[in-house]
Amino acid sequence: MIPETDRRRDDMRAVVLVPVLKNARASRAAQPEAAPAPQRSEEARLEEAIGLARAIDLEVVQGLIVQVSQPRPATLMGTGKMGEIKALLDQHDAGLVIVDHPLTPVQQRNLEKEWNAKVIDRTGLILEIFGRRASTKEGTLQVDLAHLNYQKGRLVRSWTHLERQRGGAGFMGGPGETQIEADRRLLQERIVKLERELEQVVRTRQLHRAKRRKVPHPIVALVGYTNAGKSTLFNRMTGAGVLAEDMLFATLDPTLRRMKLPHGRTVILSDTVGFISDLPTHLVAAFRATLEEVLEADLILHVRDMSDPDNAAQSADVMRILSDLGIDEKEREARIIEVWNKIDRLDPEAHDAMAERASGRDNIMAVSAITGEGVDALLAEIARRLSGVLTETTVAIPADKLALVSWVYENAIVDERRDQEDGSVELDVRLSESQAAALERRLGNGPKPEKEDWER
């Protein structure tokens, strides 16, 4: 660890580096042309990395794309490039370097020694942002767990006394536990404790979901790349006041709100954390309790920023994470609607062309969450998709309408029946929206049914 006296004073001034590995380019070029994976441009990677840095209020004094012909195990990049960056740090009096690439603990330590500045890689930067954004106990637990798993292999950076020994038998001591072993053990104990607490969070979420299933409200989840406009669309559709800013990872903790569809049906809309490329695997694992809300959703709205030139690569990253969560291709067709957002940012010709492309497809809706264009059509499509979704509810049939019991058995799935002392019957049922509306009318809770409806 660099002593504070030797470190530059202003750690809030940062230089952002985007290493581009030439051998990675060669491997992509060697891929078969049949199914080329969308690739993010170097400029877009740099812009995103700068956006991540600014999301935690850092002053980015310089952003650079660094060509790396042969990655070095000790420092990633060559000595010439390291010298250029050191001169740049001196010029701007910057005390922080952000490397938009995974760094090994050895590389991170060596770069800090060479530049006499703090160095963090992409994973560390994302963890810093998540730590700032976490506002609930659940979010804090998930961030802490991911951060400890990240730090487990980097203890060498944080201590200068890691070779000291303590313990052992006898008065004079002897070979015992080194300090780094003790620190790792304490770290592992903390990780186990957090995992247990998160298990309780998972159980609590499962109980909440079980309660929601007893209420006939389907769940619609918003997913998408970070800063795609999910929270703005969420506010437009629900009237909620969720934080919506032009900022990466403005939303971290999931938010759920009730929403009325055009024909009066109530659904629950869920806003989730935004996805990003190269999301650390242990971060995905830590946030699984949150991401399970997506798995439980009846319908998923994949929000895309169509004004971003790299939206195809962003979409591929989102689909990859959904696939990792367990949503396969068959489910995608039935459960996912692509929402092409921010069409208001396009020039008139591109706007009209995109609206034309989306108009003939049921699984794509072109909208602008800012202006409201296309949102009514999106709500109508959600209502159409959910019209056949079975929902769970409990129906109380009074003693004077017991004739309806046979109708319920014929038109719905009855999970449990409870005969009450007053002669009424309680039924736990699963039924569609149209069946629920028909039952409400028969119970006298809705408009009087037409004659042919009674006959059905």
TrEMBL record:
Give all residue intervals belonging to the Hflx-type G domain.
218-390
Q: Coiled-coil regions in this chain?
A: 177-211
Which keywords, in A-to-Z order, does the entry hold? Answer: Coiled coil, Cytoplasm, GTP-binding, Magnesium, Metal-binding, Nucleotide-binding
One Pfam family assigned to this protein is GTP-bdg_M
Q: Which domain of life is it from?
A: Bacteria
Q: Tell me the subunit arrangement.
A: Monomer. Associates with the 50S ribosomal subunit.
| HAMAP family (alphabetical) | GTPase_HflX
Task: Report the sequence similarity comment from the record.
Answer: Belongs to the TRAFAC class OBG-HflX-like GTPase superfamily. HflX GTPase family.
The record's section on PANTHER family has: GTP-BINDING PROTEIN 6-RELATED, GTP-BINDING PROTEIN HFLX
Q: What does this protein do?
A: GTPase that associates with the 50S ribosomal subunit and may have a role during protein synthesis or ribosome biogenesis.
Name listed for the protein in its UniProt record: GTPase HflX
Q: Which organism is it from?
A: Pseudorhizobium halotolerans
